[in-house]
Amino acid sequence: MTNGQEICGYAGKILRVNLSNGRITTEPTVKYAKEWLGGPGLAIKILYDELKSWVTPYDPANKVILGAGSLLGTTAPGACKSNLSTLGPMTGGWATSCCDSYAGGQLKYAGYDSVVVEGKAHNPVYLWIHNDNIEIREAGHLWGKTTWETFEMIRQELDDASLHTISIGPAGENLARGACVIQDKGRAFGRCGIGAVLGSKNLKAIVAKGNGPVKVAKPVEFMKMVADIRAKYKDTKKHIQNFRKYGTLFDLQGKQNIAGVSYKNFQGNILPDEVFDIIDPTKTIDKYEVSRQNFPGCPIGCSRHLHITDGPYAGLVTEGCQMEVLNCIQCKLAVEEPTFLYKANAYCNQLGLDVDAAGGAIGWAMECYQRNIIDENDADGLSLEWGNTEVILELIRKISYREGFGNILAEGCARAADIVGRDSSYYAIHIKGQDLYETCRGALAWSLGTTTSTRGGGHTSGAINDARPSAKKEDIEAAKKIYGVDNPYKPLEYEGRAKMVTFTEALHRVSNCFGVCQQNTVKWDTELLNLSNMAELYSAATGWETSEEDLRNITTKQLNLEKAFNLRHTGFDRKDDLPTPRDLNEPIASGNLAGWKMDEKKYNAMLDEYYDLHGWDRQTSFPKRETLVDLGLGDVADDLEKIGKLG
How far apart are CA 316 and CA 403, in angstroms? Predict the structure, then answer.
């Protein structure tokens, strides 16, 4: 009960933990929920209100917020994501990441929608949440252990083989800027360096378990919606079939067709045919898969477990990986050993290092080595030839422990280039200081959504895959209605891209706040969850009548607060919303789009349109006062005016 009124959909409480003094308190979720939805929406409100401008990522005054989406713990299709948000070390601004999660559901069953962690423990600790029993437990024996070891040791220590953990590895402990947080052994809260923030707080892990309910306000209505939506997944559509069989790895052929592969640190946009044939991940999955894995609420089930039985990594038993690993490590580093992506993914997961950060920094180093900018003397005697698997694994280790040359790479490619100098910055492929996974040449809506992302690059907060050459007529017509443009799947056209991105920004934020995996939405299949469906599910779950327009207004408000948070803590402006110099200057080298090059003038005009749609100043990218006031953020406008960053 909250203020005499039961809250549905949500668990009802926010847990606050101060590691410096051990103080543990709670507050009602309803204080924020009607205005900010939950998960990262709730997190940005708390972070903006409570972090002073002088706070830095590793300052004890920084806060890390674990959020369980507002539909997580229900039977809503695809509701399987939890979220971590903070002031992050990669960009110095808004840092947020979602992860497929058992732990998030358990957090809600324990009675909490979010956990706000602040301060710094005097010694390593982990947080154990078991219903109303909250403990800050000593973790000196876990410090230095891998995430896999931590997972098993905590289960043994608490005598419960059903527990799920989120933990950091040596990369987070050593404050590698690209450190991530791992759930159990195989899923990551990736990007942004959130693992390093946990490391700075001496927080090794968070473990939650509960047996309370998550109530919905209108159960009959809610379950009917769930059944109707889930019926769509019974279709034998190739998209669903491929996702169930291979996960996102099945998309390599599609990316090859649209010049969407980051080969040799983005020098190329496709793989040589002979390399594609060797590393095609569908072959290795067919050969080595031993079982499939699903997360609660997901109707697709894109995960699987593999046992590599031959080759250099024979004996490896691990969860399969996503497209990011294939593109950002296997392809970006030109590795031709077909099972290397699984080995690299497992190793990064054990050490708690984001695969994108690893691939970005090592890709920069290998290209600098190729161009004689750095040599073995710079790299601890290592020969940084493309595709050298032993060297790549050694660099992953060195980054995680900040050892030798790895201490430079642990800063991310942008800072590493600043440290080394020698005109190496051109080959540091990043947005806002964060190493880039996404190939931006050849798909303009994808590029615009990636480069304007408030978290510093990334396709999960606004980018839309507009390169779909095999889209059927009915899909194209459906996409026209969804995005409100006449040319949704024409990726080389500048017209209409800004409008598509504004829609996807709302879709992504709603998905992330609800805890719904984006693979279950119209972003990937026009027949799956749209904003209207999600508004109806949310209304039935909470009992608060919420329309599609309401969701768009709330997420627009959230986006503007993320923007303001960045302006308070960073020097970002319009220049930081542009593609990398390589993307702007170099044409696509080969493949179907060989010779195509971004038109910088047209790209800037597209960016102007994007700012106009948001009510932001064209010259600076800063929000205008009237925009913020209309959203109920007049106090934020005052804040930005004081620091000279009001549009």
Answer: 26
- Which residues lie closer than 8 Å to 548 by C-beta, 6 or more apart? 531, 532, 535
Judge contact between 139 and 126, C-beta under 8 A: yes
User: Residue 167's closest CA among 193, 155, 192, 185?
Assistant: 185
What distance in Å separates the CA atoms of residue 122 and residue 133, rounded to the nearest whole number? 22
Total residues found in the chain within this entry? 647
Two tokens, residue 617: 């100043």
Domains and CATH numbers, the chain: 13-209 (3.60.9.10), 235-435 (1.10.569.10), 444-642 (1.10.599.10)
Tokens standing for residue 266: 């983005």
| Phi, psi at 126, each rounded to 5° | -135, 155
In the block, tokens 């102007």 appear at 608
Amino acid at 412: G
Which residues, 6 or more positions from 244, have their beta carbon under 8 angstroms from its beta carbon? 292, 300, 301, 302
Rounded to two decimals, what is the model's pTM?
Answer: 0.97
Say which range, 238-247, 384-393, 597-606, has the weakest mean pLDDT: 238-247
Instruction: Indicate if the alpha-carbon torsion angle 502, 504, 508, 513 is positive or negative.
Output: positive
Select from 206, 7, 209 the least CA-distant residue to 116. 206
- Chain centre to alpha carbon of residue 108: 21
Q: Which of 2, 71, 91, 77 is nearest to 454 (CA)?
A: 91
Give how far Cα 519 sits from Cα of 61, 77, 412, 460, Å. Answer: 35, 11, 28, 11
Which of 104, 178, 184 shows the shortest CA–CA distance to 148?
184
Q: What is the mean pLDDT of residues 11-39?
A: 96
Side-chain half-sphere exposure of 93, counting CA atoms within 13 A: 25
Task: Kindly tell me if the per-residue pLDDT of 2 is higher than 50.
Answer: no
The Cα 470–Cα 320 span in angstroms is 27
d(CA 427, CA 405): 17
Q: How far apart are CA 531 and CA 547, in angstroms?
A: 9
Residues forming beta bridges with residue 166, ordered by sequence position: 183, 206
DSSP code for 270:
S
CA 607 to chain centre: 23
The CA distances from residue 96 to 84, 477, 503, in Å, are 6, 33, 20
Q: Is pLDDT of 4 > 70?
A: no
Q: Taking the alpha carbons of 56, 58, 59, 61 in that order, is the dihedral positive or negative?
A: positive
